[in-house]
Design goal:
Radius of gyration: 13 Å
Shape: globular
Strand content: over 45%
Number of strands: 11
Oligomer: single chain
Structural class: mainly beta
Length: 114
């Protein structure tokens, strides 16, 4: 019910845009999040966007470089990632939090080469 896309291999300093398409729940009422998990590390929250417009938060490590957004008409969330660093390498997961439960995507790999 959540499908990520847009991952890949990019050089340090480059950009990628991730997408997360949702179905099977009321997308416009879900708090949407991006998480990432690097090899051998715990999953961490990267960014979230609430139901209210422009209500977003970021991990300190990505502030000023990443931008989260959503298009409720398209039932899609995005993560624009700029100035990528090797330490951004991870599997990125989208998450939807609703009053009926939580949903996770399958993940998309982002690899940043130095």
């Amino acid at each position: 019910q959540l499908v990520e896309s847009g991952g890949g291999l990019v050089q340090s300093g480059g950009s990628l845009r991730l997408s997360c398409a949702g179905s099977g729940f009321t997308f416009s009422r879900a708090i949407m999040r991006w998480y990432r998990q690097a090899s051998g590390k715990e999953r961490e929250l990267v960014a979230l966007i609430a139901v209210a417009p422009d209500s977003s938060k970021y991990a300190d490590s990505v502030k000023g470089r990443f931008a989260i957004s959503r298009d409720n008409d398209k039932r899609t969330m995005y993560l624009q990632m700029n100035s990528l660093k090797p330490e951004d390498t991870a599997v990125y997961y989208c998450h939807a939090g609703t009053i009926y439960g939580d949903y996770w995507g399958q993940g998309t790999q982002v690899t940043v080469s130095s």
